[in-house]
Amino acid sequence: MPVPAQLQFFVDPSRCIGCQSCVQACSECDTHKGESMIHLEYVDRGASVQTVPVVCMHCEQPTCAEVCPADAIKRTGDGVVQSARKPRCIACGNCVVACPFGVPELYADRQLMMKCDMCYDRTSIGKKPMCATVCPSQALFFGTREELEELRPQSTPTNRFRFGEQIITTRVKVLAPKTKAPPPLLDVTAAMDDRPEVRHARLRVLGGAPAALPPADDPFAEVEV
Amino acid sequence: MAQPSGRARATAWGVAATATLAVLIVAGSRKLAHFDAALVGYTFATLFAVFGITYRYVMWLQRPPTRLYWRRGWQVFFAARGLPRNVLTAARRAVVEFAANRFIFVRGKLRGTAHWLIMWGCVLGAAITFPLVWGWVHFETVPGKIDHYRTLVFGIPAGEFAVHSVLAFLIFHGLVWASFLVIAGVMLAFRRRMIDQGAAAVQQFGEDILPLVLLLGISVTGLMLTVSYTWMKGYAYSFLAILHAVTVIVTLLWLPFGKLFHVFQRPAQLGVSFYKDESTSGEQARCRRCDAPYAGATMVRDLMTVERELGFRYELAGGEGHYQEVCPRCRRAMFGLAQSALWASAPKGEEG
Questions:
Q1: pTM (2 decimals)?
Q2: What is the interface pTM, i.e. ipTM, of the complex?
Q3: In the CATH hierarchy, which top-level class contains the domain A8-190?
């Protein structure tokens, strides 16, 4: 059964509190049992607690599917880009490197790419994906456009993204500030040199050696507390 | 959509492969002397299947990523310095991954068991059926030894055996053993498709159920033939023979179009494994944002080429590089940062 057209997936990374609920819940989905397909990233671990949840955006012209040599990735009529078809996927990893959002994952032991399929076992019968079900801050929201507009009067959804000179349109939408102008294009490559806003906190160290600072050039380095 | 020249090329290869098989049938059956006329329907179905499979395979190879990986796989495999090692590695992977289905067992024990049973049942069935259908294997009574059969392969004597020996029993019931394997495997596969909600959500009748139904149909009708002539004095044998032929011929005609085509695509996994080995051990691409290695440099360069061929334009503005030079992790971080920037730059008066 297709995912009902009126039900849409809205992502608002600025609301993410990094609680990991989505990561845990995702692995309960029957189409990718035991494996969490959502990515929850710190944008710069040393400087900020800002996190971003990344699900498959279900592109209208999926780069992952186009570059797949085995023709294993298919987009169903409801706009959902399905995980690689198991008999076909040859685990080359092209999709992993090609996806502009960095979504697919390669499982070398089982020779298979897996990715978020919007919890197809749930959404195809009108239920919410697991991540949207548990997200306490509604950074991940699954519902109708009307429900969203009622909840977020200051937001407007956009589904157009720029990566270099390439414009990608997706089924999943991201929330942008509402203005009189048409919904904006999210220029992802413009954030190439961006770093999160650093908010300093003054702490008094009671004793012992001071914690080591993370390397300034590695945004994903673990922070010693 | 494939270009007309691509379709013409695929048709030419299809015709060539079909003609080659036809010539081999005539030659292997000693100008049709060993050809069993009762199996002529099967023969024409296999000829059609060969045309369809070749056509689809050639069309598939013409996709830009497939073409590139196909070329690169062979280049790496035949690289002079590694050829002997590559042959050994290919043989080992063929046994571990294909013959033993290791990677499918990793996905699930029952799933692996189901696939292993179906695969070997089909391999055994095909290895017996096709040579008989094409007249390549022929049995005849040994002159002067009425209880002995002689096997002729391509018309060349290849050994004798006693008709009532254990070996004869095993050989003449080869398709029965194949049916047992397939039926057990299909039952396990059906079980999973009935109770697994994840599988149920994404499965399609034509893609996932029909192949199981066809394989079950072939196996059950084949067993019914054995039952008919062994225990029921040939009751309804003619009808059952036609019914069995229909299930086999429909499967052969459908072979190029559906899921079973993966049998011919899957060996690409071997070629890709050599390309990946080369990619992993060679120079690594480093992320232009965080400087971490994230993929083989060759792979990233090849991907850029394929993307351009497909019409994607991931080049960064001002010719400053390519988005493919950013690692997946930084892509995810940039996605969040880009949204933050959008809110930060919003006119404050209109913000909530």
A1: 0.88
A2: 0.91
A3: alpha beta
